[in-house]
Amino acid sequence: MQLLDGKQLSNTIKEELAVQVSQIKEQGEKVPHLAAVLIGDNPASESYVRSKVRSCEQVGFESTLIRRKADITEEELLEIIAGLNDNSDVDGFIVQLPLPKHINEDRVTLAIDPKKDVDGFHPVNFGKMAQGLPAYLPATPFGIVTMLDRYGIETSGKECVVVGRSNIVGTPMSILLSRKAKVGNCTVTLAHSRTRNLSAHTLNADIIIAAIGIPGFITGEMVKKGAVIIDVGINRVDDDSKKRGYRLVGDVDFDSVAPKSSFITPVPGGVGPMTVVSLLMNTLRACRENQYE
Ligand code: NAD
């Protein structure tokens, strides 16, 4: 079993990005600028956004954090988005999800200019991705593809089961892995809450991507020997032994699955850091090239 160390790999990619930023500065060109909009005080969202802003600083990007209280109206948020769309200094921006219940997330996603949609959530980017056209790939699936690529894991012709069909992880992941591409050419099964006999599918899988949101859902007896395991889940479980009162666990029961796997991502330190670095890669692209012109 080999750990897929997302922390280490993301640091390597950040170093590569930092070199590119110094070259940009030497040439007097525009430095990439990422803005993040954070609504309310959801602790998990706060920590994700903090990590995104800190990563911008590490590689030399400019960053802007726009914070508003949870009682912001949808209209007010849409105005902030319109301002960021029009601000030529901002190359890309994200609106951290989830949003308070009174705000329609679909309306918010649709309001983001696809050229600045570095999270890759807008239907224009999703559609382009599905057709294999240049697009901002959604950050988490992009991070997973990068990880499989950099670790040299063969995907062509492999059986892959993606568990979870969200618009931001499971569904785009299933599309990317079935595309005709360097990391792709898998035979993909997209499993979800209505899938019958999930184990019959996972036991046949060479690659399992778990994006469910249930701690330890994938267990050792559901996994074939030698499988590649990508654990997307980030779940907080109570733990009195920790100073903060909780610990983070994935959707995979690491202790029973790891001994059967060939490669496995840890939680934390697996997919999470790769998501952040993908956002940076998309922002650099947004700054350097306008793929829609
Ligand atoms: P979501 O909550 O939107 O959807 C969960 C999916 O799991 C649904 O499609 C549902 O059909 C499926 N599911 C639920 N119960 C199931 C069952 N019993 N059997 C099979 N499938 C079932 O999911 P999401 O937003 O993709 O998030 C999933 C997990 O990934 C969460 O823990 C989230 O925190 C984490 N996440 C991590 C990152 C990262 O950067 N590592 C990014 C996004 C999400």
Explain what you see.
β9 and β10 (246-249) form a beta hairpin. The longest helix is centred in the N-terminal third of the chain and has 21 residues, at 6-26. The protein has helices at 6-26, 43-59, 74-86, 105-111, 123-130, 139-150, 170-178, 198-202, 254-257, 271-288; strands spanning 2-3, 33-39, 62-68, 92-95, 159-163, 187-191, 207-210, 228-231, 235-238, 246-249, 263-264. The strands form three sheets. Strands 1-11-8-7-5-6 form a six-stranded parallel sheet. The chain is built from ten helices and eleven strands. By secondary structure, the chain is an alpha/beta fold. The protein has two domains: 27-113, 3-Layer(aba) Sandwich (Rossmann fold); 139-272, NAD(P)-binding Rossmann-like Domain (Rossmann fold). Bound molecules: nicotinamide-adenine-dinucleotide (NAD).
